[in-house]
Amino acid sequence: MPVLDMSLTPLREVNSTLQAAAKALANEAYVIENPRGSHAVAVGLDGPLEVTVKGSTGYYCAGMNQEATVHVEGSAGPGVAENMMSGTVIIDGDASQYAGATGHGGLLVIKGNASSRCGISMKGIDIVVHGSIGHMSAFMAQSGNLVVLGDAGDALGDSLYEARLFVRGAVKSLGADCVEKEMRPEHLAILTDLLARAGAEAKPEEFKRYGSARKLYNFHVDHAGDY
Questions:
Q1: Which of 78, 63, 79, 33 is nearest to 14 (CA)?
Q2: Torsions phi, psi of 206, nearest 5?
Q3: Which residues have CB under 8 Å from 64's CB, separation 6+?
Q4: Dist. CA 79–CA 83, nearest whole Å
Q5: pLDDT of residue 129
Q6: How far apart are the C-alpha atoms of 104 and 19, rounded to whole Å?
Q7: Using CA atoms, how far apart are residues 61 and 120, in angstroms rounded to an integer?
Q8: Pair 38, 19: CB distance under 8 Å
Q9: Mean pLDDT for each consecutive 10-residue tract of the chain (227 residues)?
Q10: Which ranges constitute the DSSP H helices of the chain?
């Protein structure tokens, strides 16, 4: 298993090596040692590759990921898995703000807590947070699923479109046009699958579902105060 030691190898070289292996469809497994909170680690991977980061990272770790699996054995700074397209990103610790922002696909698992704006403008990504999330999470989320085993902060799902939000704990407040919705059998099935894939020990029946009331899709004078 190739090892890239960031105390010896510059970030640009580390990412170039990983990107080349992913592009070659090498399906290899790499280990990154001594990340020391470096920014933009393992970004732009476009192919089947497994990357294990032995420590915490700075901002934009695993951004623009496609097909690869990136496992951070630590915490991650702002923007982890931003604009993710497919594959899997796992954070053993906490994630800072806007985790999984604008993600189009794939699975992001955060085993600790996530800060504010988790899943902002998500476009198909699945995010499972084992802990709690901060304010303005899933703001303008368009599609995909956000699963939270803990609590959610203020303005959850503000200006939400068609993303599904599942929260087991307390929600401090809902954002504009976000409402609690019925948990139907198809939603329990989706949740069961996501919890299993994320290694989360929780019962789907313990969660509440939140979604869009669909009143902000088009401007209406009667709703002007909500904009």
A1: 33
A2: -85, -10
A3: 43, 44, 45, 82, 83, 84, 85
A4: 9
A5: 98
A6: 20
A7: 16
A8: no
A9: 96 97 93 97 97 98 98 98 98 98 98 98 98 98 97 97 97 97 97 98 97 78 56
A10: 11-23, 185-197
- Token pair recorded at residue 226: 């909500």
Q: Which of 196, 101, 63, 208 is nearest to 148 (CA)?
A: 208
User: Contact 110/61 with Cβ under 8 angstroms?
Assistant: no
Judged by DSSP in three states, 145 sits in: strand
The predicted pLDDT at position 74 comes to: 98
18: left (phi over 0), alpha (psi -120 to 50) or beta: alpha
The pLDDT of residue 1 is 85
DSSP string of 112-135? S-B-TTTTTT-EEEEEEESS-B-T
The encoded tokens of residue 74 equal 């630590």
Q: What is the pLDDT of residue 163?
A: 97
